[in-house]
Amino acid sequence: MISKLKIKSTFCLLLLATIISAGNPDRQGESGANQLLLNPWGRSAGLHGLNSACIKGVEAMRLNVAGLSRLLNGEIIVANSRHFVGTDIMQNALGLGFRLGENGALGVTLTTLSFGDIPITTVNAPEGTGGTFSPNLSNLAIGYSYMYENKISVGILGRVISENLPDISAFGFSIDAGVQYITGEKENFKLGISLLNIGSPMKFGGQGLAFQGPNIDRTVGGNDYNLTFYHRAEGFNLPTALNLGVSYDWHLPNKYSTYLRFIGNFTSNAYFRDEIGGGLEFSFRNLLILRGGYRHVIADPNSVFGKDVYTGASAGFSVNLPKKKGEDSGFGVDYSYRATNPFRGSHNVSVRYAF
Per-residue DSSP letters for 25-47? Predict the structure, then answer.
């Protein structure tokens, strides 16, 4: 039964990937809602999001929802990210996951993005009116994952997307799906496939698209008067992506939970260039975990597009404080840094409690 489910799930995902993710670099910049590409979580950000095969718990709802069912019993995460330091872009996230029955798990995450106070400028006041505004971008996700005999797990996630200005807004809905497969004597080999941000186009609307203009026929009634006109906003697609990841754990020959994890991942973006990368993660008794990764954007050297803002390098660490020796439950703190050019990098901090 396991093999049939694995084959069916993998086949469906690969079929969808062929249909949906058949993009090319020429479509770069044609998608919107790129808040969905920002990672708020400290552990996965330290690997540049390359761990779609081995990610688990609440963080899996960002990269591969199938890993949600691999949490212990329950987990709460609070995260703060400073993206592209120097730009005032701040991301906050709250996540909650808990088991449903023996093999299922349900999770909820709320993510918000802020840009600081932006000066208001107009045609008549190009230097600013003295007021400020701040866009409000957020998304709420609910995911479910189910694991079959600790070997294969599948998951699906729905996400509501909101982007607002004081007088204009856009709303959308997307779906993620994923599969993870684990094998090996110590469950040391993992394979992951996930599809992200599959949804209908979004479109902005509101009074911000209205403007006053003179009546075309100014002679009517002998008086000139203005009418209200509305700009037609163009719809935009979501940044759909496909992840294919693998990982292998090499356990040190001792009785403690110490291992070195090798990670590889390929990402096919429908509206951006494809990405490939690898990383390492060293766990010492599950108390201290060090990680680092490098992601490379596959691009034509003759392309008119420049390099990605991320230089490719990332690093981070986790400190876990278990309730009892040898247990996975307890508090944890994660930190990650991703190098950028320009700006001064991106920083992620997460605080976790597993129960």
Answer: GGGTT-B--GGGG----HHHHTT
On whether residue 103 sits in a domain, the answer given is yes
* Contacts of residue 156, Cβ cutoff 8 Å, sequence gap at least 6: 65, 143, 144, 175, 176, 177
Q: What residues contact 232, with CB distance under 8 A and at least 6 apart? A: none
Q: How far apart are CA 333 and CA 302, in angstroms?
A: 43
Angstrom distances, CA of residue 202 to CA of 129, 167, 171: 30, 17, 6
**pLDDT tens, position by position, 266-281:** 999 988 889 999 999 9
Determine how β-strand 118-119 pairs with β-strand 132-133. Answer: antiparallel
Give the number of C-alpha atoms closer than 13 A to the C-alpha of residue 243, restricted to the C-beta side.
35
Residue-wise pLDDT for 108-158, tens only, equals 999 999 998 889 888 888 888 888 888 999 999 999 999 998 899 999 999
d(CA 70, CA 271): 31
Q: Report CA-CA distances (Å) from 335 to 115, 332, 353.
A: 22, 10, 15
Q: What distance separates the 2 farthest-apart alpha carbons in the chain?
A: 95
CA–CA separation, 282 and 25 (whole Å): 35
Contact call for residues 329 and 354 (beta carbons, < 8 A): yes
Closest CA to 44 of 243, 177, 284, 226: 243
Q: 300 or 149: whose pLDDT is higher?
A: 149
Where helices occur in the chain by DSSP H, the ranges are 2-20, 42-45, 60-63
220 belongs to a structural domain = no
In a domain, 207, yes or no: no
Asked whether the bond before 342 is cis by omega within 30 degrees of 0, the reply is yes
Which CATH number is 15's domain given?
A: 2.40.160.60
Q: Is residue 69 classed as helix, strand or coil in its secondary structure?
A: helix
Q: Which domain holds residue 175?
A: 2-201+236-354
For the entire predicted model, the pTM comes to 0.87
